[in-house]
Amino acid sequence: MKKQPARFNMYRKPNKPRWYLKIVEFVASPFYLLFGNGHVKTDKAVKKLKGPYLILSTHASFMDFPMIVKGIMPRTTGWVMSVEEFRRGDWLMYGIGGMPKRKFTHDIVTAKHMLRYLKTEKHSVTLYPEARFSFAGTNERLDGAIGKFCKHAKVPVVMCMANGNFINSPQWSKHPYRGIRQEAHLYVLLTPEEMENMTADEVQAKIEKAFEKDEYRWQVEKGYHTKCKKRANGLYRILYKCPACNQEFQTKSEGIHLWCEACGAKWEMDTLSRLKGVNTDKGFSHIPDWYNWEREEVRKEVEEGTYRFEDEVRIEDYYSTKVGFVNIGSARVVHDENGFTFEGEADGKPFRLHKPVSSMYSVHIEYDFLSRGDAFDIATEETTYFMFLKNAKNYLTKMHFATEELYDKLVRNAGK
Fold this sequence. Notes:
Largest sheet: 7 strands, mixed
Order of helices and strands: HEHEHEHEHEHEHEHHHEEEEHEEEEEEEH
Shape: globular
Helix content: 25-40%
Number of strands: 18
CATH architecture of the largest domain: 3-Layer(aba) Sandwich
Structural class: alpha/beta
Strand order of the largest sheet: 1-7-6-2-5-3-4
Number of domains: 3
Radius of gyration: 22 Å
Number of helices: 12
Distance between the termini: 56 Å
């Protein structure tokens, strides 16, 4: 039997960016921004910073990366990134200063890597604390320990607020690009001196306030029109519930239209990404309002104790950079007030995995991940499993809501 290589090593010490990859970043980023209509503004206070600092950035598309590279030139940064991104090659991801992270876990190994990078290597670090691309152009919830980490790090905190990159390439339909102007602003959010006189909760609150955004409102206020003829493609992935008939998972979208196959209600998306009923007066003009209404509907199910999801999943194990993803079996998944429970067979052996509600404040979802189907990932101490839904259609957004609402009910708001 061929010996399997070692699993991905989360404890490998990250290194500073390699000089030759710095050159690639410096040359490629301005061209990427030029052809992507990207624009970056960096405050003078950021440019005057002498030592290392922590960059906190919103996260909506790949454009986030060249924006930061361009914004802090000639300085460079290390990057906290999801472990599966290392499938592109250790030489590349560690070469640009990558630090692996398993999403929505309570491990501290990545935090230790970041502190070492800042303190020992004396090098800046970029973190995307939302840990996923935005789904509806609004801010997603943050890890509650960011404020505590920033106080402990005792370095300046720089904020990067990016707008337009979500509209240009939304998570639910990354292509074709919408051709809209994209903007980023880097500024000093907190200094070490300011944080000395603040509690960790106060630092956390200021960071969460800085992340508040609404891309669709920004687009209307700026008057940035998109003439893409396929701008509504994939919109049904986040707007899965019809406000006209309340049916779930019956919406479809193509071109500039979204419709419900159950009742026939239809909406058109204009060049400012607003929705207007074609044959109905029900619905929402503002996409985040529709998205938030769906969350409220899921919250009701959670509060009433009626939320439950069950399906079959195909299990893929992200083994290591060298091996990549390995199809290891299948399982039955149940998601309810007990959390995620999987029972099946993997590698020819019984497979059982339980992730209680308290262990995950959110869940990472991927629409048609690597063109292999809708998936969500579940991390353990040893690995990250990607679970591909076999039967449920377009369920991921509701799962995302339910995971967060279950956490709020049973953990965050327990005892209040």
